[in-house]
Amino acid sequence: MRQMTGARMVVQALKDQGVEVVFGYPGGAVLPIYDEIFQQNDIKHILVRHEQGAVHMAEGYARSTGKPGVALVTSGPGATNAVTGLTDALMDSIPLIVISGQVPTFMIGTDGFQEADTVGITRPCTKMNWLVKDTAKLAETLHQAFHVATHGRPGPVLIDIPKDVQFATADYTPREAAKVSHYQPRVRGDEALIAKLVDLIETAERPVFYTGGGVINSGRTASTLLRDLVAETDFPITSTLMGLGSYPASGKNWLGMLGMHGLYEANLAMHGCDVMINIGARFDDRITGRIKDFSPHSKKVHIDIDPSSINKVVRVDVGIVGDVTLVLEEVLRQWRARGSKTNRAALPKWWAQITEWRAVKCLTYKNSSTVIKPQYALERLEALTKGMDRYITTEVGQHQMWAAQFLGFEDPHRWMTSGGLGTMGYGLPASIGVQVAHPDALVINVAGEASWLMNMQEMGTAMQFRAPVKQFILNNERLGMVRQWQELLHGERYSSSWSEALPDFVKLAEAFGCKGIRIDDPADLDEAIKEMLAYNGPVIFDCRVEKHENCFPMIPSGKPHNEMLLGDADTQGVIGAKGAVLV
Amino acid sequence: MSALNIKKGSSSHSAYELRDPNGDLIESHTLAVVVDNESGVLARVIGLFSGRGYNIDSLTVAEVDHEGHLSRITVVTRGTPPVIAQIKAQLDRLVPVHEVHDLTAEGPSVQRELALFKVAGRGEARIEALRLAEIFRANVVDSTLESFVFEMTGTPEKIDAFADLMRPLGLREIARTGVAALARGA
Ligand SMILES: Cc1ncc(C[n+]2csc(CCOP(=O)(O)OP(=O)(O)O)c2C)c(N)n1
Ligand SMILES: [Mg+2]
Do the beta carbons of residue A88 and residue A423 sit within 8 Å? Predict the structure, then answer.
């Protein structure tokens, strides 16, 4: 075994785990690690401008590659700044390894300079975390951390390393020697339960596949298997915000996204189905609406790698614990072996019903020749980037929902949004993380002006590391989603939902040294988008849009799927007191 | 549009109706959780209960396998059957948790708790306390002319019963360990 310092172990372990890039910010408690990073060339370090940015960048990297993302922060404020990103990754099951420095072991508990109880603060927002007090255990802990982050339901982990542990020397435990034996979550689905699912596939009259981020997390093979299953059964398929791209938006069985701002046909199919097959989704409240009236007449099947997800909010008839890839393989094997049967008498009727729902054209909006409608801006962005090697991140708000509705995703790992936590300020740093992972691709952050300001300092990172990210800001000068809720729920009293004193985004772009484009005439939109796409470097695109557009369809909180609002005409007084207490 | 009239108490999460309409029956379950004996693990387990709003009625923890570095946590919790199932699933997915056993559901089990009672008094009350302690097989582990400390091992119910009897006889303090439990049989 090789002897080395703890700081060197960190770099060695990252190399052994195949890490190419670390997003981080230095400080006193991680200086030994930074010294080691300085003395090697295998691992690239991206210097961020705020530790929250580092963690979101690591998320963007992870979400767009399927590999774990790595962030490095100092003790105290460095670690506390990482908390939002950790929580975001936990909610969306994103594998991250965050390494934090800590005051030396002999000072822990003395309220030393930049001391924070980092493992205490981050315990509820990590899948697992460790305070390593002994250099001899450091390498093994690092390898375990990678194992835990990437096995079972993925998630963020944190390793807190006191400075004296970084300086001390011990034997390095290689990756193969690290004990990971006891954490081996179940990945293979129960064959008898899968047979029950196959029974339901064979007999269902009104089936629907309801897929989620679990399909993406399971890897590309899962998407391929899902496409096979959909094609061969000819069942309709919808997906959560997190699962977009696992089935192609151009696919003929695609119903569009479901949920609070999901498509009419998707939500009504969920409400009216007789067999619901949930693959890697978790019955989130954005999806279910009022639980009591959620898909009242269906038998429900749930495939999930996390046993605690099954029966957590919705009781299911068949709960299959396992990795989506392995479960779908077995579903296809059994179903094909039994003759690939479906209820061919009933399915055409179901499709005829769906065709009727589709004819409602729920995404219709009133376009304008004088103001840019946000939906129109996204339609044009979609048209002008079609077929490109394109990755999309978003911030949080109306623009995020419109992006999910109006952009089409053909493949997994192409759509990286903050779903579970809904973190404003996520999109810009995430786009940089994506661009670092895919230097030659087109990476666009669809943003709201308010969200974008929350981490705009990261434009400096984009400039320094030549990440040509396009910041497509749908600027309505409003906290649009808040404004929409105030309109619907709070008597149109727009309490603090203005974006006042906004910066001049074009000048801001100049100040950062990148390109700024402002546009407010729909007639100029295409040219402006082309200019953005043609520019070889970061662009801040200030797209002035209609200020009071509402995002539809919308299922108000606490309402069932079939009480969806389709447009402004539907909205008067629809949300009762009971719904108003919900978020 | 008029201001919304939100009823008192409606800020409880009633509209989601997460509670199971069929599962209103609250049950008490004793769970045995085998965990890595490492710092922070107990905090993670307890944090799970507080963070997700579950109850802890009693909790004991100690290392049970020095070589294997394992501790056993015995926790008595309450909830409807779906909530109990969720608690077990949530415990089981924690990385440092090796095993979760529901001793209430998995068959008969023995449950024991150790308690110390300080009872102060003179005369008749003192004699009565001593007599009852004998009936309950409590041991005297300390005595002065004015007080006893009794030690008793038993089910939580037995300890409750003894405490009720001692209260009028001068009960000053009780220390209880919480429940330790094992499944019966091999
Ligand atoms: C960090 C954070 N704070 C507050 C919120 C609540 N919130 C959700 S959407 C929104 C408004 C977003 O405004 P903007 O980014 O301009 O997007 P728009 O809705 O206008 O498209 C707010 C404040 C949040 N999601 N995240
Ligand atoms: Mg806005």
Answer: yes
Give A96: exposed, middle or buried? Use CB within 10 Å, 0-12, 13-18, 19+: buried
Average pLDDT, chain A: 96
Residues of B in contact with A492 (CB under 8 A): 1
Question: How many whole angstroms separate alpha carbon B143 and alpha carbon A441?
Answer: 81
Active site members of A: 51, 113-114, 163, 481
Question: Rounded to two decimals, what is the model's pTM?
Answer: 0.94
- For residues A190 and A357, give the distance between their C-alpha atoms in angstroms, rounded to a whole number: 36
- In a 3-state reduction of DSSP, which class is residue B62? strand
Q: Does A310 touch chain B (CB under 8 A)?
A: yes
Q: A492 and B40 in contact by Cβ < 8 A? A: no
DSSP calls for B124-162: HHHHHHHHHHHHTTPEEEEE-SSEEEEEEEE-HHHHHHH
Identify the CA nearest to B171 among candidates B116, B114, B112, B113. B116
Q: Which amino acid would we find at residue A379?
A: E
Q: How close is the Cα of B68 to the center of ligand 1, in Å?
A: 49
Q: How far is the CA of A394 from the centre of ligand 2 (A)?
A: 12
Give the position of tokens 């008490």: B28
Checking if the pLDDT of B15 tops 50, the result is no
pLDDT in tens, B114-155: 999 999 999 999 999 999 999 999 999 999 999 999 999 999
Name B132's Cβ contacts closer than 8 Å, sequence gap at least 6.
Answer: B162, B165, B166, B169
- Residue B93 to residue A182, Cβ atoms within 8 A: no
pLDDT at A582: 74
Q: Which residue shows structure tokens 């708000």? A: A397
ipTM of the complex: 0.91
Chosen for mutation from B2, B16, B35 (greatest number of chain A CBs closer than 10 Å) is B16
**Residue A27 · residue A51 · CB < 8 Å:** no
Task: For chain A, give the percent of residues with pLDDT over 70.
Answer: 98
> In the beta sheet, which residues pair with residue B180?
B112
* Phi, psi for A279 (deg, rounded to 5): -115, 105
> Does the C-beta of A422 come closer than 6 Å to ligand 1?
yes
Q: Does A179 touch chain B (CB under 8 A)?
A: no
Is B51 near chain A, with CB under 8 Å?
A: yes
